[in-house]
């Protein structure tokens, strides 16, 4: 059976998503440290919270590609998992050890204590704050045979998005009332909506073609995305400005609903947006390159942000804000340059992973 058509504009979507990830990490320190009454605090808050679609977006993209290429086909699971171990598990171990080693050095821990900390943090991706994503994607790959088995059920194959919404709702309610999981953010069940949104997008692309699917309705999609963003960011701001509201159960339901709606619309809106960039333009080339190396950039850029905050960040009223954004820009540029260089070596799949070319 021949290969399905390549969806080249998905690299642009990856590029947009990695910019959103870096924006979150660039502004996170300011959101937690600046007083809420600071004149620029709303800017940091809007950028930080508004970009929260990034991880769901990457999961949506991963699911889209896997369902698009493998659904309805015979698959060699041995080959599938050999590829994932080399390009996902090995980079995860490498970067977990890298960040654990730096933490041990920076905090002056005894080697034995640092080694113990590395192993205890490894299962949930806690050796650095961004590595939890690797645990989520590893769960998805591990459970992918089950996803393929479920695709054989006709009603689920016809309506993947409905199934994803139902499973997401069930897991949310079970955790809210029964499980009370502390690390729910690293559990694959927390992202079923976005995984099955990816399955839905893959289904549309197989039926209509990669250029025809999601080619219409850009106007209402843009309006819906902006409205959902305003509601989601507004609700998150309310939790910050009026925290006494947070314990109300109905607010938890509303927040979860607005979150799911905003993140889902962001995935579809950005998918449409990625289709519209003019091929060969400077912006197209930049986003395409960022997308190509996004996996390595994701793994490396927090290290440069860490160094920047430790050695370069100042507290002056003007210099502070200038250096925050300069640090974010420098972290992505340095990571991009290094990952491009590493990608030309045989070590690339083991260090900078899937997206490196």
UniProtKB/TrEMBL annotation:
The chain crosses the membrane at residues 12-31, 43-67, 88-105, 131-149, 161-178, 184-202, 214-233, 286-308, 320-339. Residues 8-339 form the Acyltransferase domain. It holds the Pfam family Acyl_transf_3. It comes from the Bacteria. Keywords: Cell membrane, Membrane, Transmembrane, Transmembrane helix. This is Acyltransferase 3 domain-containing protein. The keyword Cell membrane applies. Belongs to the acyltransferase 3 family. One of its GO terms (molecular function) is O-acetyltransferase activity. It is found in: Cell membrane. It comes from Paenibacillus rhizosphaerae. InterPro entries: Acyl_transf_3_dom (IPR002656). Its main location: membrane. GO terms for cellular component: plasma membrane. Coiled coil: none annotated. It is a multi-pass membrane protein. One of its GO terms (biological process) is enterobacterial common antigen biosynthetic process.
């Amino acid at each position: 059976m021949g290969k399905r058509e390549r969806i080249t504009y998905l690299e642009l979507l990856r590029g947009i998503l990695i910019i959103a990830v870096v924006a979150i990490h660039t502004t996170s320190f300011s959101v937690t440290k600046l007083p809420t009454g600071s004149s620029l605090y709303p800017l940091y808050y809007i950028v930080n919270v508004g970009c929260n679609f990034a991880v769901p977006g990457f999961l949506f993209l991963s699911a889209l590609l896997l369902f698009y290429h493998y659904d309805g086909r015979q698959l060699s699971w041995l080959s599938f998992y050999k590829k994932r171990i080399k390009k996902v598990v090995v980079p995860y171990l490498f970067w977990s050890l890298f960040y654990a080693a730096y933490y041990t050095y920076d905090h002056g821990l005894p080697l034995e204590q640092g080694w113990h900390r590395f192993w205890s943090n490894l299962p949930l991706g806690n050796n650095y704050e961004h590595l939890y994503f690797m645990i989520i994607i590893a769960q998805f790959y591990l459970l992918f045979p089950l996803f393929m088995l479920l695709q054989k059920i006709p009603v689920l194959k016809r309506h993947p998005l409905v199934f994803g919404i139902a499973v997401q709702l069930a897991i949310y309610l079970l955790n809210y009332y029964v499980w009370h999981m502390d690390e729910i953010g690293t559990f694959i069940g927390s992202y079923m909506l976005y995984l099955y949104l990816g399955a839905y997008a893959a289904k549309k692309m197989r039926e209509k073609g990669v250029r025809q699917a999601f080619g219409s309705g850009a106007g209402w999609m843009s309006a819906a995305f902006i409205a959902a963003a305003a509601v989601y960011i507004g609700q998150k701001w309310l939790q910050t400005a009026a925290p006494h509201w947070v314990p109300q159960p109905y607010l938890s339901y509303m927040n979860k609903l607005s979150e799911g709606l905003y993140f889902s619309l962001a995935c579809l809106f950005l998918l449409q947006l990625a289709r519209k960039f003019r091929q060969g333009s400077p912006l197209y080339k930049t986003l395409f390159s960022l997308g190509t190396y996004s996996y390595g950039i994701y793994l490396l850029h927090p290290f440069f942000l860490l160094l920047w905050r430790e050695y370069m960040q100042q507290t002056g009223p003007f210099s502070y804000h200038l250096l925050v954004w300069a640090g974010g820009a420098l972290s992505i540029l340095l990571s991009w340059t290094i990952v491009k260089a590493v990608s030309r070596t045989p070590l690339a799949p083991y260090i900078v992973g899937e997206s490196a070319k």
